[in-house]
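Assemble and predict.
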Amino acid sequence: MKPRFLTGLLSLLMPAMVLAGEYDLTVDRVKIDTGDFVKEGIGYNGASPGPVMRFKEGENVRINVTNNLDEMTSIHWHGLILPFNQDGVPGISFPGIKPGETFTYEFPIQQAGTYWFHSHSGFQEPDGAYGAIVIEPEGREPFRYDREYVVQLTDKHPHSGDRIMRNLKMMPDYYNREQQTVGEFFSDVSENGLMNTVRDRMAWGDMRMMKADVEDLQGFTGLINGKGPEQNWTGLFEPGERIRLRFINSSAMTYFDIRIPGLDMTVVQADGNNVQPVNVDEFRIGVAETYDVIVHPKDEQAYTIFAESMGRSGYARATLAPEEGMEAAVPQLRDPARLTMADMSGMPGMDHGNMAGMDHGDMDMNSSEGMSGMDHSNMEGMDHGSMAMGKGGQSDPFYAKGSGLVPTAANGGKFLSYADLKAQDPLYEDREPTREIELRLTGNMERYTWSINGVKYEDADPIRLKYGERVRFKFVNETMMTHPMHLHGMWSILDVGADQWNPIKHTVSVQPGTTVYMETEVDAPGQWAFHCHLSYHAAAGMFRKVIVEGGPESTQAKTDVIAKDGGEV
Amino acid sequence: MSCIRSIVAVSFLASIGVSTAVTAQEMISDTTARKQPLTTWGVQFEEFEYRYSDDDEELGVWNADAFYGTDDFKVRLLTTGEYEIEEQAYETLENQLVGQIPISKFFDAKAGVRFDTPEGPDRTYAVLGVAGLAPQWFEIDANLYVSKDGDTSAELDAEYELLFTNYWILSATLDATVAFSEDEEIGVGKGLVSTETGLRLSYDLIDRAFSPYVGVVHERKYGDTADLAKAEGGGTEDWFAVIGARIAF
Amino acid sequence: MNTSKFVVAGLALSMSAGAFAAGAHGGGHGASSGEPAKASEAARTITVEMYDNYYEPEAIEVKPGETVRFVVENKGNLVHEFNIGTPDMHEAHQKEMMMMVEHGVIQGGKLNHDMMNMDMGNGHSMKHDDPNSVLLEPGQSKEVVWKFSDKGNIEFACNVPGHYQAGMYGEVNFE
């Protein structure tokens, strides 16, 4: 009686939206001013980022997208559950939107939360074609807040996406300005001794791997809601209010470590799905992920939202303040992260030289032995100093044991781990998976090739799933980079060891040298994209098409036709 | 209340309508650029410099390559020249056109032709080579040349970069040529022919696109080749001060 | 219908009250929240339902000195607490609750009772037996009888880590 009335009341407030929401988006050439540089880019309705699309759970939306570019475009609704031909991936969902054409997307909104949208054509997304989606739930939110802000991050680069891809292909370290220098050699010598340092450099040189390969693409300006650090996007609040911040990482390549000095953050949602609240001091947001946090500033003062890139090569900054113009201190960037041998442990066929004693089996996240199972005797060259574990920092089961990437909170407090994420209200019954599919994340940094199971998209067959099955995906990261894997159209149930409380995501980060499992209830017929969301990794081939066979009958028939004429090879 | 319920029902029906439309939709095959091999290109001047020798010789020198292609196959044009400024003549002018394919994780094989058209007699060679990254970060380019007349020679290029900072870079290069037969006409004797060693300190001024440098280069001829040079009245060893820029675009 | 209106009004009230309280009285607490009482002394019963992660209602009105019998029902899927106190008291209690999670006493949707009653060695246990609060597993229902002492900044709150911050609290407004 009571809840029904409340729902009714809310519906009455927005009668038009319950029926069908009609929205218009134009895709335009825009100017993007980061404060550091001004750059031609692509945006929506004349701006980058585009507008915040506000939908209501249960409504049917019609979105008219007009392409004002002189090239093909598309919009992918990242994280939305919808019919596959509305998913907006050219070549997989639909042919794309031609210049001058208006394409009307139409789909029911069956979920609530924070999501985003972006072009899935070429490098339009890194060039600025992205925006936020906020979906209000049918019922009440299971938390309380007085106001909310979208905090959408990106890593705007002065170079166009095409140029970046070409430069990376020409010189994979083109944008890496955190490489080890002569100076670092001597500081390592004074810390670890000459021979240890020489052995360490020789071990990495032997692999032809760089400890500094944390960020492929440096030299960007971090933007929050389109504003650079100097332009300082500011969200206003009254002291004592609770504020919901909807963080969205729309970067092409950059993971951000986010903190608000002076404020605790309570994570209440990840990738649009509510999670059991976790109080944290800092969290890492992978590319394409979203996290909703609630903060409760009590004092009449400004607070800095500080988002340092994972490799510490850049940052985004914004402010929460009681009044426009108020500012708080902006922290210094911390030292750049360095990979360790543990991060390399996923690499097969690597010439480990004198490291043959290393037991790779012990290195995945389910290991209880970890580094203790490793034969250290021949590895004095390893830089123990930079091992997070060795320093007594916190460990995170989603990083290789001894990884140099394990994040720690700047104030020594709690840093969010995937292991902390538990579904607030599980979407699916927990059940045994019907089968497991192993996906090795592979690549060659020196050639800037990226692939899955050693095969680039151009050479790959689609992954075929059966409607109704529950597939367990096993990601084995054999590269030294972090890959945010994004399956379109169906949820990724991340295995954090919490069984029925495992969180439901759309993007799952897989750290170097780790194995991560996720399960998917195959409940969406059609064909879908499945890829690393780092723009230049996806473009280089870390991408797959997934075909869901079966389901509603007519879809099944189409799949058979395609399978027969071999059009999908 | 009943009014609200009917609105919900309408939207529910509408959503069913949408999903029916989906199933009728043709599934397409991916013919986008994403499904095609990624084609890239690049142009790099590893050296583009002015050289001034210890006996007042002035040279304009370049060493550049341009490529076009995919991960699996690239076409590469390599060009090297030394222009004697005072005499207005090319001391060396080599152009290679090769096809390049990956043969291991870090190495490519190359095959093609090389045309030498300096002042004096021209030469055409078949080229077979490997290029890539050796352990400990040595950039290696090793080539075997066979001339139309059957003269064979081999050339090894190695480069190592030392990062003083991420912008100040010292690069050390070694280029050595060995001939397996004599080609007296162009002054090449059998055995170790010549070496060129260089040290260049560069600063990345604009990305990695424009990096001015200064440096020293040492050129030396050996054995029979040195004898041939001496007989011609030339020197066998030169020290150069160089100033120039590494360029990539 | 009346109840619904009350909820909406309470919600609106709670927002402004919360902002006002924190803004105006920031730091000036010290008032005790009241004292336990017997059910027979209560003139009124208020049912508080727990969901994941909020209460219904989210605000109540009491008279200074009034004794109220709370019937607290956990209708969610997670363990929740109902605890009457000032924001400072809640904050202090959250540290204890964090310990209960770290020691596996509170495990998402259930309580580990063995662990709860275990002697911690220093005479303490992780029993949750303060009279101003109850800790409920999903489906459980318990009573708290409380005599509110005075006007003050009093909230009922769930101090399971994160829940309070996410908004699982309700204002006690004095008439």
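Chain A touches chain C through 32 residues (CB under 8 Å).
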